[in-house]
Amino acid sequence: MTIRTEPMTVNVGPQHPSTHGVFRVRITFDGEDIVEVEPVLGYLHRGTEKLAEERNYVQIVTLTDRLDYTSSMINNQAYCLAVEQLLGIEPPPRAKYLRTLTAELQRIASHLIAVGFFVQELGAFGTPLMYTFRSRERILDLFEMLCGARITVSYMRPGGVFADAPDDFWPALDQFLNDFEGELAELEDLLLNNEILMVRTRGVSPLPPDVAINCSVSGPVLRASGVNWDWRKMAPYDAYDQVDFDVPIGSSGDNYDRFWVRVQEVRQSLRIVRQCIEQIEPGPARLELPLVLRAAPGAEAYGRVEASKGELGFFLVSDGGISPYRCKIRSPSLINLTITEHLLIGWKLADMIVSLGSVDINMGEVDR
Amino acid sequence: MYGLEMAKGLLVTLTNLMRKPFTVAYPEQRVRQHPRFRGEEFTWYEERCTGCASCAKYCPLGIIKIVTSPSETAPLQGDKYLLETFDIELQRCMFCGLCVEACPYDALFMGSGFEEGQYRRTDLVISIDRLRQADKNPSTWFRPQLESMDYRPGTSRPLGWRDVGREGWRWHQREKAGMRLQGRNAEDDA
Amino acid sequence: MNACVLNPHSILGGNHLFRFIYEGVGQMLPCWMAYVVAGAAIMLILINAVLLGAAIVSWGERRLLGRFQNRVGPNRWGPFGALQPIADLTKLLTKEDIVPYGADRIAFTIVPVLMVASLLVGAAVIPFAKDVALVDLNVGVLFILAVSSLTTIAIFTAGWASNNRYALFGAGRAVAVLLSYEVPVVLSVLGVVLVAGSMSLGDIVVAQAVPFFLVQPLAFFVFVAGMSAELNRTPFDVAEAESEIIAGYHTEYSGIKFALIQAAEFGGALVVSGLIATLFLAGWAGPVADWLGWLWFLIKTFIGIFLFVWIRSTYPRLRLDQIMAVCWKFLMPLSIINLIAVTLEVFFLRDAHGVLTTADLWIMAGINIVIAAVSIAVFGQLIRQQVRNSSQTAPASRLVVSGVSTIEVSQGQG
Shortest CA distance to A164 belongs to which of A286, A290, A289, A288? Predict the structure, then answer.
């Protein structure tokens, strides 16, 4: 006997507990298997690029905080690099180290969120998420010490960082690094080799390297597919040419690899932070620039960083005024979303959520 | 053996059961607030303010509204205006602190308090009277002179307008804030 | 004065509490009325005990889960937040009672009632202390398994009636999981019944001179795993997987209906823990003082709940097909092995009257613990290999490259 079945279209999001914000995807299911995927974007569009055209170069820093709100420091850094390129200035070395250090701390925080929510989406009832948030809280506390805010930091400025770190920052950072070793080891004990996690993620939604490159994917997702590509190595910015670190590479690009690469990157970021603490030397942390900056007419610049989610770039064009003529943001989350169909079709409903979580999108950045 | 890692996971959660919770019960307990914390309020020193509206111009959202008229004390020099309105629309403020960065006379500071919840949107606009009457617990955000004083908002006493200047700080010498302050001091002494 | 006397061997006569009320009230009222009054009183006690127990479990679980996650948990109302369930209930009672557009109103409404009812009926046969159960049925085990299956129907009705696709997903998953896990659960309970020689829960407790979790560790393992699936708890909580299908079958429920479903869920945890305590941890039998039976029972029930919360706090959830694989390829063979081993042991160890002595039970425990360790290891290995073969994992070599290097992509790998 055959039972007549028909595909069923389900609207996942924009209000869904685990689509990372207001991401909406219309999925056609055959039973629990996915046959068709259609992402629908734009629920969090705020017109950041247009807003940037009406603000001066320093004011835009505050807008970049709100792109990927889990890695504001790195957004600041990308934007400031672009402006510095546009103006042809170079920040003092201490500022470079401070930027590298805070960006790596932010990368740890961002990856902790990614890992925590990834396991949350696998169904662990909040426990790994709480443990990662416990560590992330410490990092946010350090940021508060540095710049008075935890999420929307606005710490960096074109020509450096807004101010040097306060004196009590360095002992607190040491304390955090010492404690975090234990917390990370605990997290790895809980997650890294957990059989249920392995069963759920190994071999699920693999992303071959050629597809990844063709889709112009970047960041941990690309590296999980086995492509050694990291802007911190390829085109070192700030103090990345001074520090020594490894790039974790996955092999098959499945969900587990993406998770694994993030956990390993946290370890590498710790290494970078430690080296920054050793190498940083006293000096000014900011170039003395006028409050309102002006670039030469017709100047163009593209500043890019390896953000926690991939290549984040700011393309600025100046017309000689106090604000950029055009500000184009190349946000990694949006471009990483182009592999959605490739990841989801043929897999099950339960895998869909996990695969989306493993790409680690952030809607603030996708919709801008 | 298969299942060993799962047992390890159980052990991890069990050790965490024994641990002290890392969260704090907010209204009774509070986490330590750092001096640079940008609170949801502003500290403003009328004595230091010239009404130049640098803050209003530098605000990325344009939420500071300033209305001035020439002051009687020094109308010709134009270094001091009488402030009629100084409204900060908190409901749109994103607390980036650029207004504080822009203030050349150290008249505007980020505040250190953050419990500014209101029932009506209009209540979220900080008026000039509220700014005048508020406790002066400025945040040390972008004010290195407060940090070198080892000032801690909340635990230290409220600061008066004479204590918060950026004496010896780089922009201060270039701008004319010092000159004006001397004038005010003489006035007060008389 | 014609005092009413109850035959201690009748169905309700075994219940001391019932007999006490019946004989007390029988002094003043006719016997049939005393019977009704005593019945109503004891039912009232049971319903309140179970629902209050559910409230306490809901608070305790959140509190315990909080501590597992290194946070505080509900602590705002009452000492240690113990009045939190009342606050929750008040909130839910004041919510609008929504029946979604297009839903089957009658089926939608009947579900919470059905769930709570099956829970209460199931709780009726569990002996809370020596001779204190609502009824000590001679087929108690069968009865409780039968009524707990009612939940399956309720869940499916909920998913179907809600007119919501997530609810439908949840219902489909729930039916698949619940029906499958009935089988190993029943088989594992069969081992217990074999050793105890009775289906009455009271007799099973009496038979546990050695607690059955030692005598039949395999059955204990399978029963706990199976029951956590029946209760929709991690790692088997696909039916209400909140990260995938919002809340599964009760996505559309709100207000008092949602409260009842939650009560059924937490009460289910309570009843199942009580069942585990009765079947495997020797129920109300304690080291000292039989009149403290209720305390031993509560402690053992708490152990069961703690176990569930502990597992819930630690593990991610399995996928539906993997859950089925665990059921049919792992738990099922284990329960069959247990059944065969227990049958053989009972056959060879029992004396002429078919009675097992305590020494016999200890011998069984020794043998069965070895069998359990070996078979769990063997079947664990087998299912691991199956999982490995089924997943399309590339070689697990990982390279961590230091320094700048060119892109290494072998073409045509996709």
Answer: A286
